[in-house]
Amino acid sequence: MASFNRVILVGNLTRDPELRYLPSGTAVAEIGMAVNERVKKNDQWVDEVNFFDVTLWARTAEVANEYLSKGSSLLIEGRLKYDTWEKDGQKRSKIKIIGEKMQMLGGGGGGGGGGGRSAPQRQPAASSGGGGYDDYSPPPSMPPDDEIPF
C-alpha cells in the first residue's frame, strides 16, 4: 500500500530559532510554531492554538536563524517524524515536523528579542529543494454558520 507524509503549516514562531551545527558542519535549527484554528463553541467563534516543533536543516536553518525571531509569520512544508527516547527510565515520544521548505510571510508578527536581527527589505525564500510559495495566500477565515451554502 502506498503512503504519503506531507504537512503544510502557516503560523507564528513561539521563540527565536535555536541554531547549532553538527560535527559534519551541517546547520540544524529548532523552531516552535503556533498555529491557530478557528472553531465555534457555544455560538461564538474562538481561536484554538496548536503548538508544533519544527526542525530545519542546512541553508534553510541558517536563513531562519538570520531572519526570523519570536512572532515571525511563516509557512512550512515538510513531513511528520515520530521520535522516541528514554529519559529517567521512562519511554517518551513526540511527533515533530521536519521542515523541507520555508516561506517567510510579511505582515509583521512584531516579535521581540531577535538577538539583534533586523528584517530585510525583501525576504528570500529558503528551500532545500526548489520552489517557493510566492503565490501562496492563506485561506480566508471560516464564515459564520448562516453563510455556509449547505
Compact summary:
The chain is mainly beta and about 150 residues long. Helices cover about 5% and strands about 50% of the residues. It contains one helix and seven strands.
Overall description:
It is a single chain. With 150 residues, the chain is mainly β. Helices cover 7% and strands 48% of the residues. The protein has one helix at 58-67; strands at residues 7-13, 18-21, 27-41, 44-57, 73-87, 90-104, 126-127. The protein has a 5-stranded mixed beta barrel with strand order 1-3-4-6-5. The model is unreliable at 109-143 (pLDDT under 50).
- Tell me the Rg in angstroms: 17 Å
End-to-end span in angstroms? 35 Å
User: What is the percentage of strand-forming residues?
Assistant: over 45%
Order of helices and strands: EEEEHEEE
Please tag this protein with its features.
150 residues; mainly beta
Secondary structure: elements and pairs:
Blueprint: E1 7-13, E2 18-21, E3 27-41, E4 44-57, H1 58-67, E5 73-87, E6 90-104, E7 126-127
Parallel strand pairs: 4-6
Antiparallel strand pairs: 1-3, 1-5, 2-3, 3-4, 5-6, 6-7
